[in-house]
Amino acid sequence: MAELDRQNALDHVVVMMFENRSFDHLLGRLYQPGEVKSFEGVIGKDLSNPIPPWAEHGADRGVVHYGVAENMNTPYPDPGEEYPHINTQLFGHIDPLSNRGVSGERMVVPFNAPANPDQVPKMDGFVTDYISAFIAEMGRQPTYDEYSQIMTGYTPEQMPVLSVLARGFATFDHWFADVPSQTFTNRSFFHAGTASGLVVNAPYGNFPAHNSAETLFDRLEAHSLTWRVYCDPPSLYSLTGLIHAPRLRTRFATHFLSTDQFFEDSHNGKLPAYSFIEPQIIGHAHNDMHPAFIVQTPDVNLDPPSSLIAGEDLLARVYNAIRSSASQTGSNCFNTLLMVVFDEHGGTYDHVPPPPATPPDPAGPPGQMGFTFNCLGIRVPAIAISPWIPEKTVVTDTYRNTSVIRTLRERWNLGLPFTARDADAPDLSRVFALDVPREPENWPDVVARPVPIFDKSVVPLDAPLSPLAQAVTMGFLELAKQLGQTVPEIEDPARLKGGEAIELVHESLGRLFPGLQRS
Known about the structure:
This protein is an alpha/beta fold. It has a single domain (6-442), classed as Alkaline Phosphatase, subunit A (3-Layer(aba) Sandwich), CATH 3.40.720.10. It has 17 helices and 14 strands. It has helices at residues 23-27, 83-91, 126-138, 144-147, 160-168, 183-192, 206-210, 216-222, 239-243, 245-248, 252-255, 259-267, 307-323, 403-411, 420-423, 467-482, 498-510, and strands at residues 12-18, 48-50, 63-65, 67-68, 152-153, 170-172, 175-176, 227-231, 256-258, 274-278, 336-342, 382-385, 393-395, 399-400. Helix 2 (83-91) runs antiparallel to helix 3 and helix 16 packs parallel to helix 17 (498-510). It is globular, with a radius of gyration of 22 Å.
């Protein structure tokens, strides 16, 4: 192999983006106090959230203390993740007449935002919001045991792959999502530094119709650099493609491939300059680490197999593929950075207030729901894996998802900032602190637990859709229609069953991405 040089550490970048977990939720117990110089975790802290007086069960307890998740499918049902929900989580405020017990898509002005726009988040509304979201989702008040699960997180023993990699390389304990809202806007910020003023997923036709912002993918092509989006089977479509459809539609057939191709490309040293990996996101047996949300089964709080267990299995396979790549030319274990990131916190608890942020267009008008993009989203896990990084590295400075495009833009000479947001994002270069790389045989070994087979008898796919899943299904069908696909008319979404909805979405959107079709 050619002489190793730290300047080549970013020749190839692979990003694996998971869904909807906060830093405290997955990595808050990564280190014991004093084990490393500094680590902003949960051990040794008295963390809690107040129980609202209008809770019908357990309000006399006053607060819910932070604890350990009892199973690998927590929290169930899925917390609220839209901008109004997150306002409640941040500030503890919820409009009692208009927005309590109402789904995020039906909340109204002022969207639970505080009266004082400069108010510092107290991170004390997670229990309040979860009870409200539970009512909207399940049609009843939750018990104490049901809502207290929002104040739980996982141990390193429960998350062995993620934790071993975080300890074996670099973890960022002040890495934030870019927007205090949900999936589409945060994924758009990740690759464009903006979401064209859009704050929430709905109406679902907005992104494919109006999100015309220049992306990292455009800039890579303009500078003759290669890229691919790899989607894990049985995914038949890509969220990245759909969110950036105005820019990427002509690339659906050529640049969106299965992770089967990723493993082949990695083995052969043929990874592109930039690889973005999407787990299986919509469907049973999903491995995106997203909490369960597809079917409404009030008496069963499982989403087998756990998306956390399945996500760790995928992460282990991707890590091992890069670790074992010893190609003499092209990509290999010494010139490839693997970033493990999450799009947003998805409503799970975190105790660190997000800081203010520079709006993408400081002189522009407010965006959807009146949000000015002047605050970051909640803290999420982020891990950098490279042989040029010392083990047990903890980066304590404030970073965010747009730090990735800032770093690549400068390292690959891609031109001016996309927006004012990525212009002042911190660069990742400081994590490459070693002068001599670590040989792959000295990298940590990871062992993922076996992924349970999806058991239809536990959560049958003929179960009715939850209200959230109804909205998501109808939204994706509308999105497919916006992109010119033939979509069946659904008169009553409440009559859709889980399996039926999954097939409708896959069939309607799947035709757009021929590289992801089932063989």
